[in-house]
Amino acid sequence: MARSTAKVLDLSYKPKGIILSGGPYAIYEKDAPKLDPAVFELNVPVLGICYGLQAIAWHFANVGAVVAGEEREYGEAHVSIKQHKGSAVHVDRLFAGLGDQIQLIRVGDKLSNLPEDFLAIAATRNAPFAGIAHETKPYFGIQFHPEVTHTPQGTELLRNFAVDICETRQHWTMNEFKDSEISRIRNLVGEKGQVIGTFSRQMQGIHRAKNSQVLYLEELTQQLQLRS
To answer: Of these residues, 84, 90, 135, 145, which one is catalytic?
Structure first.
């Protein structure tokens, strides 16, 4: 995971793919952060989520590509998936196996037009370009959040991108992460160092909802204390 301010060309590795996450801005605002153009020089798959979609559209279509939705779709909405055939069939890979429609919670801003060389792959009642894909390159964007519980098939969508499109391996586990983090923190602070850890209120809600992650946090803290 890279910081939002990180420059692609400064990375010490070439990623298998890039996910441009959401954010509190609207892309048309004066001080809204814009996408590093070097993202598209890596020749790897890119998925823009919510603000990430706006950033992709702004990059390829610039001014006027994103507008505030006239009718906000906060709350439950449904997105219709559009299938493509022929030479553009690769654009169907993001929604592969998800049927013709999925449930979601959508936000207010939307694309006003398609960037050049992009196709619409999903739409809601008020957002005709709720999902887009490049005709020839593995660039995708969605105007909703697949990672939240209100998008029941979101995990499958993310798996389609990460595993099928980016061709990553599924070998990460929470235990592996726990052990590597203990080792990394211990190397940073030393055998007798003290650690103060904080996380956001949003993360608290996540950890409280996931017993396994709460256990991980408590166990990690205990192990660090025992080794101090």
So the answer is: 145
pLDDT > 70? residue 123: yes
Q: 172 — alpha (psi -120 to 50), left (phi > 0) or beta?
A: beta
Indicate if 41 belongs to the active site. Answer: no
Angle, in degrees to the nearest 10, between helices 211-227 and 174-189: 30
| Phi, psi torsion values for 121, nearest 5 degrees | -115, -5
Instruction: Indicate the average pLDDT of the chain.
Output: 77
pLDDT of residue 119: 93
pTM, entire model: 0.72
Clarify whether 166 is annotated catalytic.
Answer: no
Dump pLDDT digits (tens) for 59-103: 887 655 676 655 555 556 788 998 887 667 789 999 999 888 877
Q: Are 165 and 138 in contact (CB under 8 A)?
A: yes
Taking the C-alpha atoms of residue 79 and residue 105, their distance in angstroms, rounded to an integer, is 10
Contacts of 98 (CB under 8 A, 6+ apart): 81, 153, 156, 157
To the query of whether residue 134 is one of the catalytic residues in this protein, the response is: no
Torsion sign, CA atoms 183, 187, 190, 193: negative
Task: Single out the catalytic residue among 76, 147, 176, 181.
Answer: 147
Give CA separation, 122 vs 77, 110, 129, 180, 199, in Å.
13, 12, 6, 39, 35
Chain segment 13-43, per-residue pLDDT in tens: 889 999 998 777 777 777 887 888 889 989 9
